[in-house]
Design goal:
mainly beta, 4-stranded mixed β-sheet, 10% helix, globular
Length: 138
């Protein structure tokens, strides 16, 4: 288990939407940032077409490739916790030099798995818990 147990944490939400975290009997709602942290992608190219023999054709494109993250503040040291989307977190955690450059001490993402996601009309409306990506724990 991680040694993360922060009280009075100053949290920075860099997901592209307001974040509702509702563990049991209370909720924290973090507003959406003006500039969210998102992955930059390279343009996809059409490389073929698949058809089942009918008139329906489906384009086949190259995989989405990520080339960087935008929207990270230059210095996050004022925050004890930085929250980003899971894909952004997974991209950053294998690049610890970026975490150090942006002075990110603890990197979390919303846990949208079935045990944690709160749903309204089928859509995720919040989460019960957050996932820790950095520092890495086993």
């Amino acid at each position: 288990m991680s040694a993360l147990a922060t009280t009075n944490a100053k949290m920075l939400n860099l997901t592209p939407h307001p974040l509702r975290v509702q563990p049991v009997n209370a909720a924290i709602i973090l507003p959406a940032p003006v500039v969210p942290a998102v992955l930059e992608t390279e343009p996809q190219r059409k490389i073929g077409v698949v058809t089942d023999g009918s008139a329906v054709c489906v384009d086949v494109v190259t995989p989405q490739r990520f080339k960087g993250v935008t929207g990270l503040p230059a210095d996050c040291s004022a925050y004890s916790v930085v929250i980003v989307g899971t894909f952004v977190a997974q991209w950053l955690v294998v690049r610890p030099e970026l975490l150090e450059r942006h002075r990110i001490r603890c990197l979390l993402s919303p846990d949208t798995g079935p045990e944690s996601a709160l749903r309204t009309n089928g859509s995720v409306s919040g989460v019960r818990r957050l996932q820790q990506h950095w520092p890495v724990v086993d």
